[in-house]
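Attaching the record inline, Q. Sequence:
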Amino acid sequence: MLYGLSEQFKINIKKEYRKGKKNMEPILIKHPLLEHKLAILRNKETGTKEFRELISEITIFLCYEVMRGAKQYKAEIETPLQKMTVNMINEDDYIFVPILRAGTGMIDGIVKMIPNAKFGHIGLYRDEETVKPVRYYYKMPSGLDRKEIIVIDPMLATGGSGIDAITLLKEDGAKNIKFLSIIAAPEGLKKMQEAHPDVQIYCAAIDEGLNEASYILPGLRRCRRQNFRNKIKNSFEN
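Structure, as predicted:
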């Protein structure tokens, strides 16, 4: 099994110590309905509109799990019949950071679950020749050191963009970071764990691996960045 992950449908969080560092095992989120949605998402016959809707729906599942350990506080509300004490979370305590551009497709699902969450943005694209991430944009809300940061990107392939994004956030003061992805390659997971062993990774599937072009197999249709990437690159170079 990859990284000691269980095949059971429950989430299994395992921690181990490697080279003196606490290393968090990735959390593989398993559910029949989630797997059904992911199967449709992978199908090459799935249209663009349905593809976008599925990204949002799957993100809702993932967001539900990444917030499982959220800190709650007591509040008093009033129903149509009486007052009552309820458990709530402070939505302002969370900053979601999509890696542009693919990560923006997950924003809608996050907003449906946590309407008042704050968002930052990191612009990275993969150089097709070197397969390394190139930065072009970075903007964050204040208070990174006091918030829980969740980086979102549909695919964790080589791990380069995710590693670079988390490094930038740490340099900016972020201390509590999670990484949320729909599918991941073992190679990317390994590199992410080695670079940032303190970051918990969540994903809906761990695929077979990368091909010679560093694309995930079996993967899914690429969350296309090419045209957007070139436009952004040119605008920042001029």
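The chain has one domain: 26-69+92-237. The CA atoms of residues 126 and 132 lie 5 Å apart.

More tomorrow.
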